[in-house]
Structure formats: structure tokens, C-alpha cells
Amino acid sequence: MATFVRSAFPAAFRTNARCIASIRSQSWGPHTGLKKVKIVEVGPRDGLQNEKNFVQTDVKVNFINKLSKTGLKVIEASSFVNPKLVPQMADGIEVMKRINREPGVDYPVLVPNPKGLQNAVTADVKDIAIFAAASETFSNKNINCTINESLRRFQDVVDMANIHGIAVRGYISCVVGCPYEGDVSPEKVSEIAEKLYKMGCYEISLGDTIGVGTPGSFSKMLRAVKQVIPLERIALHCHDTYGQALANIYSALEDGVRIFDGSVAGLGGCPFAKGATGNVATEDVVYMLHGIGYETGIQLPELIKAGNYISQHLGRPNGSKAAIAMTSKLQLDQDQV
Ligand SMILES: CC(C)(COP(=O)([O-])OP(=O)([O-])OC[C@H]1O[C@@H](n2cnc3c(N)ncnc32)[C@H](O)[C@@H]1OP(=O)([O-])[O-])[C@@H](O)C(=O)NCCC(=O)NCCSC(=O)C[C@@](C)(O)CC(=O)[O-]
């Protein structure tokens, strides 16, 4: 298992003054000797952004409030993007103003540009995520600019975020495959990961946007990324289009990754990646991790209740196999939620 050697990285990487991430300083790497995993719940943002029918703000707020009671420490709550392109997230400021923010829980929102950052400041957001891609075509379709142009914009966003004491997470989409360009090279991913990390992102989430990855392609990609950023700053963001997400997460665990994104009930999809299905269901990830002996701090029955709540509102069955099995086993009747 590869372990990050701090001295291999320039001092500027370790003590980047622009990185507000001292408040995110908890270390998740295997070097800690602890079997701890951090879960980043993206259901309220990635899970809902592609829903055709508008989910009422009240429902979004209740959903996030329920997630806040599960032991999750990070809940990605919304995105501050062009509402004409992603109308489902148009109420992001309202959502952020109305949720009960639990102490010790972070509620990041996606921010693509300075305008989104201004909205984040208005909504008293403390944590944002910028989102780049490892494929030029996807970058253009998703955020209407080249990869290089997006990195320039993100630098402005990070600089503004630093002024306001807002921490910044970084995403990279299409880390193993692109819906338009096919295979993506590990070197391209590591190049962008390094730039986002140098910019001051406290964590880099590697997104398999269309869920095509396997443990084989993930392992090659991770090997490249681990050369340029500390292992404990790497997160994985798996979609389950090809049913590979849990296998990919298990394999990444073996490679030392300890931060995983998930979306309760397996909700999700990207409006700019046709055919991509939902994220890996957080309930399934937590069930697997607890089974192996990892601590997540999450109470699985409460998480299942939150997933059942939103599934009920969307009018479809919960997409998590663990949730379906445990709902009937624990008699978590949806009427109770
Ligand atoms: C990036 C932009 C904004 C560029 O959009 P643009 O068209 O290049 O920007 P613009 O500056 O020309 O503005 C166009 C209009 O958008 C407005 N606008 C501009 N910015 C904002 C903003 N922040 N908030 C609110 N409004 C905004 C702006 O005011 C203007 O309004 P108009 O004059 O037409 O009325 C646009 O392309 C966009 O919003 N794209 C949506 C991207 C998105 O949300 N994608 C889905 C999330 S990414 C994802 O799901 C992948 C991930 C993270 O989960 C990981 C993975 O799985 O791979």
C-alpha cells in the first residue's frame, strides 16, 4: 500500500497560506493507523440536480436536516450555478439560509465562478467546491469553457474564497472516462489534480462521472494522482452506471483512499453527461465499510430514513440495496419517517 511521504512535496504544497483547510485538518490517510473513513454526502446536490420535477425547497431543507442527524460530517447542500441550466438548484441560497446547520457538520455548495462565490457569501456558506474536468469536451459542455480557462476562473474563486475565510474542495470529472471522448489518461487527471491542490483545495474528489471505471482503471489513475498530491487529500466520487462503484471503492480502500462521496438512495446524475446514472448509494458504502470494520461515525438506520424520505418524495423506490433490505428487516416503515 502506497503511503504519502510528506517530505516528497514542496513546502508550498503543505503550508499553502491560501488554503483555509486548517479547519479541515483531520487526517484520513491510512498512515493514521485508524480504520476511519470520511463520507461526503452529495445527495442534496448531485442527487437532486438532474431531477426533472422541481423538488420543493421545504423538502430539500427537511432532507438536509434529516441527513444532519445521521452522523455525517459533510453534506453537499446545493450548487450556485446558472439556474437556467440547472433549474433544480435555483433555490440554493434559500436552502442554505433555511437548513439547521449542525455544529461540526460542513455544508459545501458547488461554485463555478465569482458570481457563484458572491452568492455563497450572501448565503453565509463556509465551504465550497469548484469543479474541473479531465476532458476538454466535458469541460465545455458542463461549464462552457476550456480546462485552462476553468482553472483561471477557479483561481479567482479561490482567491475570493480566501478573503472570506471559505474553504475550497476541488472536483475533477471524467477521471477514467468521458461521455464524449472515451478513455481519459491518468496523466491528464494528475496534472489537473496537482493544479487544483496547488491552488489551495483542501481535498480533491476524483469523479467517475459516467461510472465506467473498474478497479483496473481506477488503480492506474490513482497511482498517477498519488504522485502529486497527498493520499489523505484524495476522495473518490463514483457513479454506479456499470455496477462497479462498490468494487472501485473497495479497491481504492486497498490503495489507501479514505474519503468517499455517496448519495443516499443512489440518487443522481449529471445533466451534462447523458446516460450516466446515480451516484453510489451512501447506505451501501456505509454498510460495506462497517462490515469490513471501518468507522464512519454514521448511524446507518438514520441514513436509511433520510434516503427513504427523499425517495418517497420523488415517488420511486430507494435505490440502495442495503436500505431496501434493512428497511424491511428493521421495519423502518416509511410512515415513521
Ligand atoms: C459555469 C457556468 C455558470 C458558466 O456559464 P456561462 O454561460 O459561460 O456564463 P455567463 O457568465 O455568460 O452567464 C450566463 C448567464 O448565467 C448567469 N450565471 C453565471 N454564473 C452564475 C452563477 N454562478 N449563479 C447564477 N447565475 C449565474 C449569468 O448571470 C447569465 O445570466 P443571464 O444574463 O443569461 O440572465 C454555466 O455553464 C453553469 O452554470 N453550468 C452548470 C454546471 C453544473 O452545474 N453542472 C453540474 C454539476 S458538475 C457535476 O455534476 C460533476 C460532479 C461535480 O458531480 C463530479 C462528477 O460526477 O464528475
From TrEMBL:
One Pfam entry name: HMGL-like
Instruction: Tell whether Lyase is among the UniProt keywords.
Output: yes
Supply one GO molecular-function term: metal ion binding
List residues of the Pyruvate carboxyltransferase domain: 37-304
EC number in record: 4.1.3.4
- Give a yes or no for keyword Metal-binding in this entry: yes
InterPro entries in the cross-refs = Aldolase_TIM, HMGL, PYR_CT
Listed under GO biological process in this entry are: ketone body biosynthetic process; L-leucine catabolic process
- Catalytic activity as recorded in UniProt: (3S)-3-hydroxy-3-methylglutaryl-CoA = acetoacetate + acetyl-CoA
Q: Which UniProt keywords apply?
A: Lyase, Metal-binding
Give the enzyme class.
lyase
Recorded superkingdom: Eukaryota
**Family membership:** Belongs to the HMG-CoA lyase family.
Cross-referenced NCBIfam families: PRK05692.1
Its recorded name reads hydroxymethylglutaryl-CoA lyase
